[in-house]
Amino acid sequence: MLNTISFEAIKTAVQQWLNMHWGPHLAFIAECILIGLLVIVFFALLGLLLVFMERKVSAVMQIRLGPNRVGPKGWLQTSADTLKLMLKEGLTPDGADKFLFNLAPFLIMIAAMLIMVPIAFARNFQIWDINIGVLYISSIASISVIAILMAGWSSNNKYALLGAMRSGAQIISYELSAGVAVITMVMLTQSLSIQDIILSQQNGWWIFKGHIPAIIAFVIFMIAATAETNRAPFDLAEAESELTAGFHTEYSGMKFALFFLAEYINVFIVCAVAAILFFGGWMPFHIGNWEGFNHIMDYIPSSIWFLGKTFCLIFLIMWFRWTFPRLRIDQLLNLEWKYLLPISLANLLLMTIIVVLKWYL
Amino acid sequence: MHQVLSSTPEGIFTINVGPQHPATHGVLHLVITLNGETILKIEPHLGYIHRSIEKMCESLTYRQFIYVTSRMDYLSAHINNHACALCVEKGLQVEVPMRAQYIRVIMDELTRLASHELWWGAMAMDVGAFTPFFYAFRERETINEIMEETCGARLTMNYMVPGGVMADIHPQFQQKVKQFIAGYKNKIAEYNELVTGNVIFQNRMKGVGYLSTEDAISYGCSGPVARASGVACDVRKRYPYDVYAQVQFDEIIETAGDSFARYLVRIREMEQSVRIIEQLIDNIPEGDYQAKTKAVLKLPKGEFYQRVETARGELGVYIVSEGGTTPYRIKFRSPGFSNLSALNEMAKGGKIGDLVATMGTLDLVIPDIDR
Amino acid sequence: MDNEALKASLLPLNANLTFEEGGEWVNVFVPYNELKPLLKTLQGEPDLYFNYLFCLTCVDWKTHLTMVYHLTSLKWQHNLVVKAVLNRENPQIETVCDIWKTAEFLEREVYELFGVEFLHHPDLRRLILTDDFKGWPLRKDFEDPVNMIKL
């Protein structure tokens, strides 16, 4: 019975229905529109959920309660905040480049949505299993840098530009380490496609099978991911007690909400990618050839596995934010270029040797 | 931070920082001259909270002026009151009973703990770690509750009077303080794990805001700022007052002179304060809590100076008396005033990000500077 | 050094010193135009070594102003109070900024509250009060009908 109400089954049922009633071309178009709407709704809900989660997690760590007035136990807090932001006046500064100023928040959301395409939420529930899945994700993630620089430049504000340049420098630097960590894992799976990566973890997740180099790659990827999404301890660009107030200073109202949302969506995306590469995506926890154990693990639906792993990693990233102080910009770039990049390259070499000699489990 | 930017062709420009800070240092306005990101000169503009306390005290009696002084360095309110009471007692040549002396020192050390807690929380927040702020206030809340039960107020306690303390401690005081102290050592260990030992934090603080020993002496710095540069100037050790001469505690001196040294000095001072309270809390002698003094106090003609060690440094109270019921001239030598004058020396040549770390370790309370 | 020894070692430094009795520390009066050389010697002399200026203030005695300098030696642990009498109409005195850097701010404060002009001060202007404030507030004859309430 569980098999009949899985995401996979719903998807096949809807596809069959559309093809029956409307013919292949129209069905395809209808599917595209449906998927677009679903992604937008998913984003909205995810944004609401993640902001609320951040506030509650930070409250627990800081021995206080967090939002608990609006709605039952505070669950409607973020909806109220979104409503407030929608009703706020969207102010465009006088000398700002209007076209770019308005385009920047949309661009960053488009980049986030495009990345959703190859991510597999459940067994056989992917929008498009592109054969260059992981490479596609890395390249689309770079588009967000353009959006940030656009936002800083078009604001006509020296400090927004400074913040945008710092942010841009930070993201571009850390993309290198993240990319090398990803390549390290791709070497194990010998395929870029997300489906192949997940299926290759049938008998155990890569972080266990790939042992030492996989663990090093995981640590590097998490650090680089935190830096790429401008989260603490790497949030110099948006910190209040430093001088520049960040690339989104001049934004207000819904456009600010889009930037704010995009940050949390990016956190979800990097954690989803980490879950796929290191922890098996929707693959349940299997241990080698223990048939009985594996069979029991299979009872838990794959979407629960995927979301569970992703949210655990999101919790980890949130934990970082509320524990560590902030790094200075020169210490940040130092960390990347002098430490993370050499270590990740050495790790890549190590992984190559292990793959060639077949020393992984 | 509020910034106003004007540039000259050479790339040197001035920005304003303050008077409103997100970092709760009080109303301090700094005009910083920058060359790119490097600080060339810092000029503090003071006076946003100047209340002319010195002039006011010239029309208040010797019993009244103590209450105004709690508002000067409000984080060490007890210690301020203590200084004024001691100065008046010096003039009147009054002997304070031992019980009152013990109570005063215990209150002083509790205040020092509360002040250092707030400093720690606010400084960690400046550097980017938000959680320690809440942990610090959790501890401070317990101290404030003890203060409220004993003195009636949480911030401006007004408990010390010339001759002793205003009212006796209540029966559960000793037990509450002992309970608080018992759990406190673990807290300091927790703080060390969370912030002191953190590599990111150490990298932000080490080598930042260096103040040499000669500069510290020349600029008149006192308290943890001077002690971190190797100057041995703890008033409790050099010119002890009340029972400080009989209590065992260490004077913490570091020689590095940078922000991390100032940080360590304060953390270790917290440990020493706990040690002092432990030694005193069980041995409060019986007796009077206040010496008998006349209702209207008149100091003889002359000048009296009393120095105490507040959480920020050496506070001096200088009373010039003409024999009347009100002082002729009072001067408060505030520790923050001299510490602030060293800020230019510490921060020039560094970057703006380092300024935040340096100012955090200076522990400035602006009402203390402006009076 | 104790007070008697201090007095003895101060006497040879300047011919016009007078001592005030009855205080906790040695109070010595010196004419204002001879103040700076005396303070310089006090700081430099190895037996005296007053390297810490911890209080610099002024007292208005209605007929004259008195500058008060509180010095201490961190090495020898002795304290000294040096005073100089100033003319009320035209109070001028040499700055001691070059001896102790803390004097820079302290003298600015005395300038704005009492009107004492410090010669050769690098930056003598108001510190705590607003730059356009009129009058010298801590003088005994300062009148401010709006803000001062006489009880």
UniProtKB/TrEMBL annotation, chain C:
Source organism superkingdom: Bacteria
EC number, as in UniProt: 7.1.1.-
Catalysed reactions, as listed in the record: a quinone + NADH + 5 H(+)(in) = a quinol + NAD(+) + 4 H(+)(out)
First-level EC class: translocase
One Pfam assignment: Complex1_30kDa
Domain NADH:ubiquinone oxidoreductase 30kDa subunit: 30-143
GO molecular-function terms, A-Z: NADH dehydrogenase (ubiquinone) activity; oxidoreductase activity, acting on NAD(P)H; quinone binding
Sorted UniProt keywords: NAD, Quinone, Translocase, Transport
Gene3D superfamilies: NADH:ubiquinone oxidoreductase, 30kDa subunit
Function as written in the Swiss-Prot or TrEMBL entry: NDH-1 shuttles electrons from NADH, via FMN and iron-sulfur (Fe-S) centers, to quinones in the respiratory chain.
Record-stated family: Belongs to the complex I 30 kDa subunit family.
UniProt name for this protein: NADH-quinone oxidoreductase
Organism listed in the record: Hydrotalea sandarakina
